[in-house]
Amino acid sequence: MVAFGGMQLPLLLLLLNAAFGSAYHWFNWQYEVGCQSDTFIAPTDEAGVVDFLNKEFPKQSLIKVVGNGHGFGNLTTCINKGVTNRTSHIVSLANLKKFQINKDMTVTVGAGWDVYDLVNKLKEHNLSFNYLGAMRVQNIVGAISTGTHGTGQKITNMATQVVALRVVDARGVLKTIDEHNNPEELKAFRINLGALGLITEVTLKVQPTHLLKKTTKVLNATTDYKKLYTELADLYKEHDRMTVWGPHFNWDTKAEDWAIEPTFFASWWEPTNYTGVRNCTLNYCANGCGDCIKDYVCYDETSDAVSAPPEGICSSQFYAEIEHFFPMEQFVDVAVNYTKFQQAQTPRMKGYENEKMIFQFRALKGDDSYMSPANIYNLGPENSGVFGVLEIDWMQTVNHWGTLYNNQEFAYEFQNEFGAMYNARSHWNKMSPNDPKHALSVFPKLPEFLKVQERQDPNCQFVNEFLANQLGIERCRSALKL
Ligand SMILES: Cc1cc2nc3c(=O)[nH]c(=O)nc-3n(C[C@H](O)[C@H](O)[C@H](O)COP(=O)(O)OP(=O)(O)OC[C@H]3O[C@@H](n4cnc5c(N)ncnc54)[C@H](O)[C@@H]3O)c2cc1C
Fold this sequence. Notes:
Blueprint: E1 3-4, E2 7-8, H1 9-20, E3 24-27, E4 34-37, E5 39-41, H2 46-56, E6 62-66, E7 88-92, E8 99-101, E9 106-110, H3 115-124, E10 127-128, H4 140-145, E11 162-168, E12 174-178, H5 183-189, E13 198-205, E14 207-208, E15 211-220, H6 225-238, E16 242-252, E17 257-260, E18 263-271, E19 296-301, H7 302-306, E20 319-327, H8 331-345, E21 354-365, E22 386-396, H9 401-422, E23 425-426, H10 436-442, H11 446-456, H12 465-471
Parallel strand pairs: 5-7, 6-7
Antiparallel strand pairs: 1-2, 3-4, 8-9, 9-13, 10-14, 11-12, 11-13, 15-18, 15-19, 16-17, 16-18, 16-21, 20-22, 20-23, 21-22
Helix pairs in contact: 6-8, 8-9
The protein binds flavin-adenine dinucleotide (FAD).
The site of flavin-adenine dinucleotide has 32 residues, from β6, α4 and β13.
């Protein structure tokens, strides 16, 4: 299990319970989002999950299943105890640790696995995931449920690797959903936002271990953004699997403005027949760790080449982040206009504890999961089906709440500004603003998703404020006192 500042999730919840009396407090990874429940439940096995939900159904108890809380925003919060007359439970499936290798290059794993531990377990069997996020501190179901992704124009998000799953609905009924027997339904369940029940296990595609070559190149920055981003768009034509870390800006405390750093860097990955020393973990060169702005090449097993384990994550100050997906054809326009919008709003950042602002770009192949931010359902014939992914990180010198909240409020505004213009979709766990109208236009399968949601959860036991507001689940508002 992944530790939070040296503490494991159940222990953290337990200690918080001791500190706060009878309420259980859940927090996300940087402790700025949280909720209080009446209980914390960690069933020992799948039968325990069934039994628990079955007993809670007549009482219409509120149930929020949590992974590792590695997100920005309130997707994973429970309904606070006392807000309604229903009991509020936080549920962790951390004890469900099944691990089974199947014959067809898939593995079946319990919902208790963290991605980090699972990657290590797969390594013991010379297996690997091809598709991971930039970090691997999430719970495996938590990662899948929001569409966690890496980069690659031929690479889809992690959820697309799910070929089957087992889920328990609000009545306590266990159901298996797989690509052979219920392929359409699997499209609803892959990215489920915790709204469709408690997923107890998933079967995922894996691959035999193979190495990737990672090349990092220093690039020159300029405030001629059209030129800068046209060069990056050209680089994406050469490299299928590439992340651009930049441009970087530093807060100039005298000028109270962002100053662009003269250089930044891009990394790309490609297959290799190299068999020598594996060395990408010698310099993670991501997430504030390592000596990054230099040209270098390394080789490693896929997971270690594309994603950083916890020891490769050095930044621990508060930060705010947005991540938007948009059709790749609009890359230059999107990048220029997001950057200019940010610059125009800089006066609002004066007087706060800003340190760095980092733009990051990735690419992602579209997919057909109903709630995937890279879903292809409303694309036109002019679109290739590949998405550009733009991230902006606002990092701070110290953990200052005012700075965090100021930046987060600002982060929400990008979707209002550009969502309709660029068919842009927000990452579910990265400052996604409430806008059910926009959600319906960029997730055309939302009505189908909500039908499955109502069937799985007729009494709104799994719904929280985020889901009601983001997806427009009107039927749950009065029950949840929203
Ligand atoms: C610093 C940082 C870097 C990140 N980098 C990336 C990145 O590179 N790419 C990317 O795509 N994302 C990235 N993310 C986002 C992250 O991958 C997602 O937010 C992911 O969902 C986190 O998983 P978790 O288990 O920690 O989440 P949680 O917030 O605990 O859970 C996420 C969702 O899954 C649901 N859930 C959990 N377990 C179950 C279950 N058993 N059954 C049903 N539902 C369940 C929860 O209810 C919730 O809705 C990053 C986040 C941070 C903070």
